[in-house]
Write a structure and sequence with these properties.
By secondary structure, the chain is an alpha+beta fold. It contains 16 helices and 22 strands. The chain has three domains: 218 residues, Rossmann fold, CATH 3.40.50.620; 68 residues, no CATH class; 125 residues, no CATH class. GO terms for molecular function: tRNA(Ile)-lysidine synthase activity.
Length: 440
């Protein structure tokens, strides 16, 4: 097994023997075998262990076991405790994803701080097969079919040629102790469902399913390399750079084989998912003017190009206006004031000035950009009107629409800034106090 691992490390160019390797050790059979094999290769190793506090005393037992293992071998030991459930709740991710984010971010900190070249993790052939099946079930492209990479950035996976069964056999032959994670037997997690419910059925069809999947993944990786070369070649012909924007030629995109795949590879780094890209591709056949959003970018379907732009910080932010504010500098300049209603008051005709019944307002007011489904009650009307319809009626261009700000009182839109006030907060004969805003 050691010879096979050495050959795999050399073939995949994972690392050189004189480079320092940080080994992620959970205490399970895979990470214990990985550490043993790397030590037999005489690689300088450090041990990193995460306590996610998901299994009470069992998690603490894992810590004690891994620390003793590192001490017995005379290896540097690093550990960290995480409140995984809190992180998952705050970031709205699964426990699995939370644990993944926490450990890899911390591993990278240790790697940098203590001059390790790579981080070695214990993924093996079973993990590859399970990952491909998970990706297929959730929906994937060629990248998902290529499974877990032997080397990705600073992460190396020397155990990919070996099955879980082989790791258990090696640990027994070499009298290695390890910890068994009790949650591995549960089926609450997606991976465990694949492992305990799907893989046994596939094994009945093909007893060598893990080896078959590993070989399939090797071929998929070769196909992925060809795919990437074609994408990169066509990318240069499709894209024009205009300032910070990317312009994707619609005419050239339509001439390509698999235009949706090309578009996905261009847009996915900017937060667009498969469904988003499919919708954008469908919009190419329609009229210009449609906008599509990721969390950080937007795509405008223009006449000749798909225009990819970063959403500015102003577009992402919401501004609060308290009663004490008299001058606003951001996102634009505006003067704000309260005044008593007098007989000399005249309604302003200038669209840059808005006057409201101050007693009808709920502070703090909010300034934000429009969102799909927004509606208000234009002054003089009795019913509500969608902002999207208002924009059409006023013949707003795409740019004008996207640059328009809304002033809100509670959940009500009270001013399409610089264009139209809301009827529900207008000044009436009963108004005694006026709130005045003027764009500078």
């Amino acid at each position: 097994m050691l010879r096979k691992l050495v050959r795999f490390v050399e073939e995949e160019k994972l690392f050189y023997r004189d480079e320092k390797i940080l080994v992620a050790v959970s205490g399970g059979v895979d990470s214990v075998v990985l550490l043993d094999l790397l030590c037999k290769m005489e690689v300088e190793c450090g041990v990193a262990h995460c306590n996610f506090h998901l299994r009470d005393e069992e998690s603490n037992g894992d810590f004690d076991f891994v620390k003793n293992l590192a001490d017995q071998r005379g290896l540097a030991f690093y550990s960290k405790d995480f409140d995984t459930k809190k992180y998952a709740a705050e970031n709205k991710v699964s426990i699995e994803m939370a644990a993944r984010d926490l450990r890899y971010n911390w591993f990278e900190q240790i790697r940098n701080n203590f001059q390790y070249k790579y981080i070695a993790v214990g993924h093996h052939a079973d993990d590859v097969a399970e990952t491909v099946l998970i990706n297929l079930a959730r929906g994937t492209g060629i990248h998902g079919l290529s499974g877990i990479k032997p080397k990705l950035g600073n992460i190396v996976r020397p155990l990919l040629p070996f099955t879980r069964k082989q790791l258990f056999e090696y640990s027994e032959d070499n009298s290695l102790n390890f910890r068994e994670d009790s949650t591995n037997a549960e089926t609450d997690f997606v991976r465990n469902k694949i492992r305990h419910q799907i893989m046994p059925v596939l094994e009945e069809i093909n007893p060598a399913i893990r080896n078959t999947m590993t070989e399939n993944v090797r071929r998929f990786r070769e196909v992925e390399q060809i795919y990437n070369e074609v994408i990169e070649k066509n990318r240069g012909e499709l894209i024009l750079n205009k300032g910070k924007d990317l312009l994707i030629s619609i005419a050239k995109l339509e001439k390509l084989k698999a235009p949706v795949s090309h578009l996905f590879e261009i847009l996915s780094p900017f937060g667009f998912h498969h469904r988003d890209v499919k919708n954008i591709a469908d919009a190419i056949k329609g009229i210009s003017g449609k906008l599509f959003y990721s969390s950080t970018h937007q795509v405008l379907r223009d006449r000749e190009f798909l225009i990819l732009s970063e959403i500015s910080e102003n577009d992402k932010q919401e501004y609060s206006i308290s009663e004490e504010v008299s001058v606003l500098d951001s996102p634009f300049s505006m003067k704000l004031s309260f005044q008593d209603r007098t007989s000399s008051f005249r309604f302003p005709r200038d669209l840059k000035i808005a006057c409201f019944d101050a007693n009808k307002l709920k502070f703090p007011l909010k300034l934000r950009k429009w969102q799909e489904g927004d509606a208000f009650r234009p002054i003089g009307m009795k019913g509500n009107k969608k902002l999207s319809d208002f924009f059409i009626d006023q013949k707003f261009s795409i740019q004008e629409k996207e640059n328009t700000w809304l002033l809100c009182s509670g959940s009500k839109i009270i001013w399409v800034v610089g264009h139209r006030m809301d009827d529900r907060v207008k000044i009436t004969d009963e108004t005694t106090k006026i709130y005045r805003l003027e764009l500078v």
